């Protein structure tokens, strides 16, 4: 099954700024993600649709405001949807999502509490949307118990099951075990949502994919609650190294981060832990000591620095000569 990317910047990442991004940032990020051909995007209140009213998560726009912003992006190739905490379920919010053209709602409940999500799943399906599910704190069950819960929810009509490492506590062997058990128990796609509290988000995403996950959750620049999530751009870099996610505009995404998102987040004092240049060095295998000459050549020929680094490094990672750099820059 083709590996998909689900970007949660505008939902989980909203914890960085309160409970939701401003209208300007929401519009900007939706534009950047859809232009980069990210296939699945979760946006809105950090607490999900209905949280503004039901939980008092008012440090955000209203659901209606977020939905209005999203309308001009519905005709792009990305699926747009919102989170829905099962404990805050109100049927009118499913109606609201359907009326505004969302492709999915992702219902969330603590692992083991899946029964409270069944009605919401049914109501979502009745309205011709996809019903996704997040097992929050997945690690509180055993792999076998989580797999059984997955089977029950699939029988209720579920379209996708996300293993959520909500505290960033899981190690790669644990992620592998949970993912494999669930993958073998269900026929629907399995997703993984990691956090970086132990610095394991990237390794855990790879482990999930290697053991059956076909969707990986991420946030641009790692934005998510607590220690953050796997950065969307890092996930794309990692998976392109494995021959996956090649339909995503990786370099366009990096330009968007450099030119628009990173500057916009300065007002919130958000620090990007791995800026695009450093990510490209890891992606391509280029040593940082060569950056100065790459920058000079890219500026002289007015070409993409990141593409230049990547293409030259495919030929020579050890000691790229100025002549080679100039030749590739000319071809770009």
Automatic annotation (TrEMBL):
Keywords: Manganese
Keyword Manganese: yes
Organism name: [Clostridium] symbiosum ATCC 14940
Short name of any one Pfam family annotated for the protein: HMGL-like
GO molecular function: catalytic activity
Name of the protein described by the UniProt record: 4-hydroxy-2-oxovalerate aldolase
Domain of life from the UniProt record: Bacteria
Residues of the Pyruvate carboxyltransferase domain: 3-254
Taxonomic lineage from the root: Bacteria, Bacillati, Bacillota, Clostridia, Lachnospirales
InterPro entries according to UniProt: 2-IPM_HCS-like, Aldolase_TIM, PYR_CT
Keyword Zinc-finger in record: no
């Amino acid at each position: 099954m083709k590996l998909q990317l689900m970007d949660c910047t505008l939902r989980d990442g909203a914890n960085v700024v309160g409970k939701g991004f401003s209208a300007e940032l929401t519009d900007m990020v939706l534009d950047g993600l859809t232009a980069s051909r990210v296939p699945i995007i979760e946006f809105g209140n950090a607490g999900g649709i209905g949280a503004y009213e039901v939980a008092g998560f008012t440090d955000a726009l209203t659901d209606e405001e977020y939905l209005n912003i999203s309308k001009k992006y519905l005709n792009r190739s990305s699926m747009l949807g919102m989170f829905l905490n099962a404990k805050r379920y109100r049927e009118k919010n499913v109606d609201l999502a359907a009326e505004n053209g969302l492709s999915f709602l992702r219902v969330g409940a603590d692992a083991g509490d899946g029964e409270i999500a069944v009605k919401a799943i049914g109501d979502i399906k009745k309205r011709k949307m996809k019903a996704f599910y997040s097992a929050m704190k997945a690690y509180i069950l055993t792999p076998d118990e989580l797999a059984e819960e997955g089977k029950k929810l699939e029988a209720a009509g579920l379209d996708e099951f996300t293993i959520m490492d909500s505290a960033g506590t899981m190690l790669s062997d644990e992620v592998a075990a949970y993912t494999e058990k669930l993958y073998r128990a269900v026929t629907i796609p399995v997703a993984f949502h990691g956090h970086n509290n132990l610095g394991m988000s990237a390794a855990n995403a790879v482990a999930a994919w290697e053991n059956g996950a076909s969707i990986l959750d991420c946030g641009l620049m790692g934005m998510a609650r607590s220690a953050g999530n796997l950065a969307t751009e890092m996930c794309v870099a990692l998976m392109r190294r494995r021959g996956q996610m090649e339909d995503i505009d990786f370099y366009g995404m990096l330009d968007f981060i450099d030119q628009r998102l990173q500057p916009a987040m300065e007002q919130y004092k958000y620090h990007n832990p791995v800026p695009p240049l450093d990510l490209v060095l890891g992606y391509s295998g280029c040593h940082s000591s060569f950056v100065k000459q790459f920058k000079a050549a890219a500026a002289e020929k007015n070409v993409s620095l990141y593409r230049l680094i990547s293409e030259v490094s495919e030929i020579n990672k050890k000691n790229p000569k100025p002549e080679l750099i100039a030749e590739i820059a000319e071809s770009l």
